[in-house]
């Protein structure tokens, strides 16, 4: 993935839709009063705020590798603790009661090594709670890869165009089941009602489209976006009122530490 800056304002254009899965995940965490909570890949702090609202007495920390996202988090939630760092190399000084991650781990490779290590950072009886998108086969994402293979940028985008970062549920069951006292997995497909295909483009520009357009010079980027939008319009025809529906499947994991 490109190391260019994240745009918190672009990301938060759909703050309600992006935050809802963290609300749903936090609601299922079977902990009454965790003392220490960390939000991995906290972004601009929207998911961290959900944790603070549910457990107001907990010591809550957010960690992210984007200075731009953390600057927004510090502005919006100055009372919380924010740390700049990479999830892949993060290790707790002492175990947390809740290690929480909403829509971040899909950016981190090698889940077979990563997730057991994250579970090891959880105190006995605590939880590892994860939500990741698993919609990379739907048209919005498939078309990113198709356009990447259909233009002068093909060689530059070859590596990213083949990446499907979230594994099927069975992979995580086999990985975490033997290591956890209890494991729950479920999927939810949200049906997001958006204004038009242009709104879908704005949505993915804040996240999944970034690895495809960030490496491109401005002229090619505009050409790529024009082709992609044309295909989005065909893939997501308007409803009777002119709006479009964007299905978005997400995988949820709750692992209780032994």
Structure description:
It is a single chain. With 258 residues, this protein is of the alpha/beta class. It has a single domain, classed as Rossmann fold (3-Layer(aba) Sandwich), CATH 3.40.50. Helix content is 38%, strand content 24%. The chain has helices at 8-11, 15-28, 46-54, 67-76, 111-119, 139-148, 158-161, 169-176, 197-205, 210-213, 218-235; strands at residues 36-40, 59-64, 81-84, 96-102, 122-133, 180-194, 244-257. It has a 7-stranded mixed β-sheet with strand order 3-2-1-4-5-7-6. Strand 4 (96-102), helix 5 and strand 5 (122-133) form a beta-alpha-beta unit. The longest helix has 18 residues, at 218-235.
The DSSP helix count reads: 11
The run of helices and strands is HHEHEHEEHEHHHEHHHE
Q: Remind me, CATH topology?
A: Rossmann fold
Overall average pLDDT = 92
Helix- and strand-based class? alpha/beta
CATH C-level label: Alpha Beta
Distance from first to last alpha carbon: 34 Å
Task: Return the domain count.
Answer: 1
What Rg do the Cα atoms give? 19 Å
Question: What is the CATH architecture annotation?
Answer: 3-Layer(aba) Sandwich
In the predicted model, the low-confidence regions spanning at least 5 consecutive residues are none
């Amino acid at each position: 993935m490109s190391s260019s800056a994240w745009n918190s304002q672009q990301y938060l254009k759909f703050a309600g839709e992006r935050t809802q899965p963290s609300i749903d995940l936090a609601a299922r965490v079977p902990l009454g009063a965790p003392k220490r909570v960390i939000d991995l890949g906290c972004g601009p702090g929207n998911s961290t705020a959900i944790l603070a609202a549910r457990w107001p007495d907990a010591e809550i920390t957010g960690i992210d590798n984007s200075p731009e996202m953390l600057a927004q988090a510090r502005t919006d939630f100055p009372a919380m603790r924010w740390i700049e760092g990479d999830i892949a190399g993060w290790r707790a000084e002492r175990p947390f009661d809740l290690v929480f991650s909403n829509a971040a781990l899909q950016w981190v490779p090698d889940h077979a090594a990563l997730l057991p290590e994250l579970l090891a950072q959880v105190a006995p009886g605590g939880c590892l709670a994860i939500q990741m998108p698993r919609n990379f086969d739907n048209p919005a994402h498939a078309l990113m890869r198709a356009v990447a293979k259909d233009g002068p940028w093909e060689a530059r985008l070859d590596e990213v165009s083949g990446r499907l970062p979230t594994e099927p549920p069975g992979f995580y069951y086999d990985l975490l089941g033997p290591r956890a006292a209890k494991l729950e997995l479920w999927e939810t497909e949200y049906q997001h009602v958006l204004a038009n295909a242009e709104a879908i483009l704005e949505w993915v520009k804040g996240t999944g489209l970034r690895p495809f357009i960030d490496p491109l010079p401005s002229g090619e980027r505009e050409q790529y976006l024009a082709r992609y939008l044309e295909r989005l319009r065909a893939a997501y025809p308007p409803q009777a009122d002119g709006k479009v529906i964007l299905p978005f499947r997400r995988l949820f994991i709750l692992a209780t530490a032994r």
